[in-house]
């Protein structure tokens, strides 16, 4: 089911948007401040509606901060209608804008249009902070830099990342990688993990944690 994030410091607008979108069977999460949003969960959203004028962290700054973490459409909600303001918003990584006050039909039309385009163009991906998995191409990029992983190394990373926080033993990872019928040793998993870590260290990251006596997890 489609999930939408809405951030606006006006409670009445949040309520209006949430009620409108829920009638369309969307899952909707609302926040009055950008700092309340858990950045690690942004990848779950299919579209983000973001007010520009907010206290503490404004919409422009938040959009610029998260744009490399998500590839879903970001639509600004703004009372500003001057061309210069709109250009600034789009240059920060937004896909579109909706000027306040807006009608419900206009809001829905814009959202439906962007979601339709995403369904046509979107490549299946998984984004965890600044690490992006292209699930179709079987590639990992960090801040737009592609990691040179073998097929087995990629599949180990994908398995761990898809179940972030869950601990897997070497036996479990070996079975997931090669299947129960494959003859070999789970010790190969440790060597793959070693190589993966070396490649992530080249981009100053270490996402795989060893849980001593048990196995590994993506942290």
From TrEMBL:
Domain of life of the native organism: Bacteria
Gene Ontology terms: biological process: regulation of DNA-templated transcription
CDD domains: REC_OmpR, trans_reg_C
DNA-binding region as annotated in the record: 123-219
Modification sites for 4-aspartylphosphate: 51
Keywords, comma-separated and alphabetical: DNA-binding, Phosphoprotein, Transcription, Transcription regulation, Two-component regulatory system
Ranges for domain OmpR/PhoB-type: 123-219
Domain Response regulatory: 3-115
GO cellular component terms listed in the entry, alphabetical order: cytosol; protein-DNA complex
Gene3D superfamilies cross-referenced by the UniProt entry: 3.40.50.2300, 6.10.250.690, Winged helix-like DNA-binding domain superfamily/Winged helix DNA-binding domain (1.10.10.10)
InterPro entries membership: CheY-like_superfamily (IPR011006), OmpR/PhoB-type_DNA-bd (IPR001867), Sig_transdc_resp-reg_receiver (IPR001789), WalR-like (IPR039420), WH-like_DNA-bd_sf (IPR036388)
SMART domains for this protein: REC, Trans_reg_C
Molecular function GO terms recorded: phosphorelay response regulator activity; transcription cis-regulatory region binding
Keyword Transcription recorded: yes
Protein name in the entry: Subtilin biosynthesis regulatory protein SpaR
Record organism: Streptococcus macacae NCTC 11558
Gene giving rise to this polypeptide: spaR
């Amino acid at each position: 089911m489609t999930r939408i994030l809405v951030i606006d410091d006006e409670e009445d607008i949040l309520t209006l948007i949430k009620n409108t979108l829920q009638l369309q069977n969307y899952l909707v999460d609302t926040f009055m401040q950008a700092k309340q949003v858990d950045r690690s969960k942004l990848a779950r959203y299919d579209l983000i509606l973001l007010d520009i004028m907010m206290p503490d962290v404004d919409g422009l700054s938040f959009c610029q901060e998260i744009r490399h973490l998500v590839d879903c459409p970001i639509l600004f909600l703004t009372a500003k209608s001057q061309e210069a303001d709109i250009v600034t918003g789009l240059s920060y990584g937004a896909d579109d804008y909706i000027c306040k006050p807006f009608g419900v039909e206009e809001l829905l039309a814009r959202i439906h249009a962007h979601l339709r385009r995403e369904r046509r163009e979107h490549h299946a991906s998984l984004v965890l902070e600044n690490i992006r998995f292209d699930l179709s191409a079987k590639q990992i990029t960090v801040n737009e830099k592609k990691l040179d992983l073998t097929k087995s190394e990629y599949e180990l990373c994908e398995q761990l990342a898809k179940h972030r926080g869950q601990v897997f033993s070497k036996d479990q990872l070996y079975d997931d990688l090669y299947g129960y019928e494959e003859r070999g040793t789970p010790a190969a998993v440790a060597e793959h993990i070693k190589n993966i870590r070396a490649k992530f260290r080249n981009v100053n990251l270490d996402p795989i944690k060893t849980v001593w006596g048990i196995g590994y997890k993506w942290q």
